[in-house]
């Protein structure tokens, strides 16, 4: 939380952003602060053992940190602790990842990477490419299209957006 508070207090630029900050402390405890619809999941072998919640005002309107009156402040961040173990994989990303790939697609890609002993960079590249394809497809069925239907918006196709993916593996805990 200290990192988020300090960064926020030093930011003078106009605009807004989501934030997902994750640290590994005490050997086996992930500490995270999250604002908005960037998020992370922890994968153990072939199972998602944790997924961070998102913060939305309404459909496609995430909390965002910023200096204007309508923006979120660091005190509104979710504070999260998750116990991890050696071999766990952490996938963090922006909504461009999670709006275009279903959790099972992310899990399958991570599990394949674990099985093939791929490095984090290779897993990032694979997930980013997988998310990019439906983001450009006007007929793709994605988590975003399903969320739009639940919200009564009925939007077809993927969501063109920034796609940020970070993959980390816990080596020893």
UniProtKB/TrEMBL annotation:
Domain of life: Eukaryota
One of the Pfam families matching this protein, by short name: SpoIIE
Needed cofactors: Mn(2+); Mg(2+)
Enzyme Commission identifier(s): 3.1.3.16
PANTHER family: PROTEIN PHOSPHATASE, PROTEIN PHOSPHATASE 2C
Catalytic activity: O-phospho-L-seryl-[protein] + H2O = L-seryl-[protein] + phosphate; O-phospho-L-threonyl-[protein] + H2O = L-threonyl-[protein] + phosphate
GO molecular function: metal ion binding; protein serine/threonine phosphatase activity
Key words of the record: Hydrolase, Magnesium, Manganese, Metal-binding, Protein phosphatase
Positions of the PPM-type phosphatase domain: 1-170
Keyword Membrane applies: no
Family: Belongs to the PP2C family.
Protein name: Protein phosphatase
